[in-house]
Amino acid sequence: MKSSKLVSIIIPVYNKEQYIQECIDSVTSQTYTNIEIVIIDDGSKDNSLKICQENAKKDNRIKVFSKQNGGISSARNYGISKATGIYIYFLDSDDWIEKDTIKDMVECSINNKAEIVQACPVLEYDNKSIKTNIIERQDKNIKKCQEKILTTNNVTNKEYGTIRWVCNKLFLKENIENIEFNTNIYLLEDGLFIFELLEKIDSIYFLNKNTYHYRIISTSSSNSFHKDLLEQLLNLINTFKKLINNDSLLNSYYNLELQCFMSYISKYIKNNKNSITKYKNEIKRITKIDSFDEMIHNSKYQGNSIKQNLVLFCLKNKIYTLLVIICLIKK
Of 19, 71, 123, 190, which is the most buried if we count CB atoms within 10 A? Predict the structure, then answer.
């Protein structure tokens, strides 16, 4: 497809020598050729940078930049500053895209005058691939989209899918030039970015095509426990609260806050070997956080499973011993 609209594909890279070549190959083979490939090496300690530089010698559309390690948000911000395209497309270095991805998304943007185009991922596990789909439409209910960022963590949801992701979306650069990824947060940083961006646009187009292959890696940070996890979660929910300027989103905010606390409690118990008494003391510490009572009183969150609902019931009714036992059960 020929077009005058240059697309900047931004790929942050950190220690992904095992996957980066497949990622780059999927981009250089795009049927939409008017692209620039902006690779930001975020201080890799393996051969990732070397692999990227070797590819740049073969394809002049590839621009490789190297910086000190600052995290994926820092790398994406740097990539935006170096991009010259009309459109921006983010791709993670351990993922890959279909050969018609950029063509399909640019066509969709032009034909529908869409400010954001979101397609569907294929979830790539070690032993299986799961295709997702979405109800195709142009959605002008921006507050509903923001609400789903706060409440929906299910990427197979047929209405909003990967609404929280920046990957698998095509953006107009002019809309994101004055928005930055928050470099102090490593949880739901994508969602924060999209939430803020939605304040500036009128609609988002949901494209029912599998364009993006998302690799599920079991050692991902989203599955692990960090010592500063509670601090990160509190920073996240406080940052979201500052962005909310509509009372209709408050209930969704309370639901997000509750999910964060439940996630912390579950991960803390699963990843720390303590007595039940120490587990209970940590839960009690959480419940003394200033916003906790307000959140528990106002949240109408309903869990996605029996286990989640049991945890929620125990938390609301202060049945901490049972809560600990439920969290210790693996299935």
Answer: 190
